[in-house]
Write a structure and sequence with these properties.
There is one protein chain. The protein has one domain: TIM Barrel. It is of the alpha/beta class. It starts with a strand and ends in a 7-residue tail after the last helix. It is 32% helix and 19% strand. An 8-stranded parallel beta barrel has the order 1-2-3-4-5-6-7-8. The longest helix is centred in the last third of the chain and has 15 residues. The structure holds D-xylitol-5-phosphate and zinc ion. InterPro entries: Aldolase_TIM (IPR013785), Ribul_P_3_epim (IPR026019), Ribul_P_3_epim-like (IPR000056), RibuloseP-bd_barrel (IPR011060).
Length: 226
């Protein structure tokens, strides 16, 4: 398995978004994490397909699109139209009654499909979907804002999900990821780490990304390909 670091642009300077993305790309980032919020599923509004389309034009780094929106089925197409093969589109299990149809509509467009799960949602809710997805995103904060504290109790659920999941399923953690919290998440079985504040609030993005990657490698319970 591979360790991947995903830069959440929620904490990037919005007036310099293009430059910020170029900087993390140059610093060796694996994924660009885009937090899409609708003001209903979460109490915040952020960006949508228009921004995704603009970002797509300026970077080769695959996009890790995190939909925090109600009824994702209604909007899947507006995102899949703007994306391509290596990009991942992730929606929340709590936001739809028919997750399998959302997964299929993402895959029909040749995109990778991910499902996200909130801190207090039970792992059994997604058990049946684990064989149908390309990535599982486990929230370690309540979704809505960057800069919140990592909820350590979620690591028990990550451990269970890693045992339940097919071999090599990417498991991403999102929320409060920093060098001090990565050891718990990596040793529980996560291999993809989304981080906003611990990258964009630093002066040296390369140093920040390498620091996160080093910690994840050091504490990972998985067989890691270098
Ligand atoms: C929260 C978002 C996260 C957030 C992470 O709803 O999904 O991706 O940007 O921010 P940090 O890394 O600052 O906790
Ligand atoms: Zn996110």
């Amino acid at each position: 398995m591979q360790i991947k670091i995903s830069a959440s642009i929620l904490a990037a300077d919005p007036t310099q978004l293009g430059n910020e993305i170029k900087k993390v790309e140059k610093a060796g980032i694996d994924l660009i994490h885009i937090d899409v919020m609708d003001g209903h599923f979460v109490p915040n509004l952020t960006m949508g397909p228009f921004i995704v389309e603009a970002i797509k034009k300026i970077t080769q780094v695959p996009l890790d699109i995190h939909l925090m929106i109600e009824n994702p089925d209604k909007y899947v197409e507006s995102f899949t139209k703007k994306t391509e093969k290596d990009d991942i589109l992730t929606f929340h299990i709590e936001a739809t009654d028919n997750p399998l149809s959302v997964i299929n509509s993402i895959k029909d467009q040749d995109l990778k499909a991910g499902v996200a799960i909130n801190p207090d949602t039970n792992e059994q809710t997604i058990e049946k979907l684990l064989g149908s997805i390309d990535m599982l995103l486990v929230m370690t904060v309540y979704p809505g804002f960057s800069g919140q504290a990592f909820k350590r109790y979620v690591c028990d659920k990550i451990r269970k999900l890693r045992e339940m999941a097919p071999e090599n399923l990417d498991i991403e953690v999102d929320g409060g990821v920093k060098p001090e919290t990565i050891p718990d998440a990596a040793s529980a079985g996560a291999n993809v780490f989304a981080a906003a504040t611990s990258i964009f609030a630093k002066d040296d993005y390369k140093d920040a990304i390498e620091g996160l990657r080093r910690k994840a490698q050091e504490f990972s319970c998985l067989f890691i390909k270098s």
